[in-house]
Amino acid sequence: RRQALTLGALAALPASAPGSASAADDELADVYFGCGCFWHVQHEFVEAERRVLGRKDGELTARAGYAGGNAGADRGKVCYHNAGFVADYGKLGHAEVVRLTVPTSSFGEFAREYCRLFNKDGYRPDQLGDTGPEYRNLVGLPGGVKSPLAKELVRASVAEGDRLDFGVGKGDDANVRGLSWIMDTTAFPFFQAESYHQFHDGFAWGEDYPGAYNGLAKALRVADSGCPNGMLGV
């Protein structure tokens, strides 16, 4: 398979200031990754923060949330499915994602971690269970495809066995197996999910994480979104 966005195609795009290759190696970038249910994805990126960056509990930045919809927020909110249909993230066109803050010099390692969430055929772990655009694959970068970080995504996919294709996200995009949409975080910002979704056990049967992990939402004082309690499941 070939990437819809190749390294050559990305190189031909004009440079973008955010995440510039000429910036200092330790420049921090806010990015997000979507790959089906955000419970499992958050756990994997928390572990990556610990392993790659040596971060302790109080330094972890991975947060579950929503992004990728053209509608943005509804009266300042984006919420999980709820009985009152208040600012429903699916109705607003968003997908489930996990945001984190990483040094641009380390982004390639996190891009490879993202690609490892898929198997060789581009299937994510919950591909057949969680369906619909709320579970589509997407990556948010400052500057979108114009960011040099976009090239790292393509390199990561190649390094991990060419698991993913990439496309230019336009908002409200479709859920396509093996394809991840690259979003510009300025046009498509991150909206943090409810506190009860943070550091949650995984979606798979038996995917129960340690209590110390589940307790991070309280330990890190994750702010409540002000959304009504959502329906069970994710």
Structure description:
By secondary structure, this protein is an alpha/beta fold. It has six helices and seven strands, in the order αβαββαβαβββαα. A seven-stranded mixed β-sheet has the order 5-6-4-1-3-2-7, covered by helices on one side. The longest helix is centred in the N-terminal third of the chain and has 16 residues, at 38-53. It starts with 6 loop residues before the first helix and ends in a 15-residue tail after the last helix. Residues 16-24 have low confidence and may be disordered.
Quick structural gist:
The chain has 234 residues and is α/β, with parallel strands linked by helices. Helices cover 21% and strands 16% of the residues.
Topology diagram in text:
Elements: H1 7-11, E1 28-34, H2 38-53, E2 63-67, E3 95-103, H3 107-115, E4 137-141, H4 149-159, E5 165-168, E6 179-184, E7 191-192, H5 211-214, H6 216-219
Parallel strand pairs: 4-6, 5-6
Antiparallel strand pairs: 1-3, 1-4, 2-3, 2-7
Helix pairs in contact: 2-3, 3-4
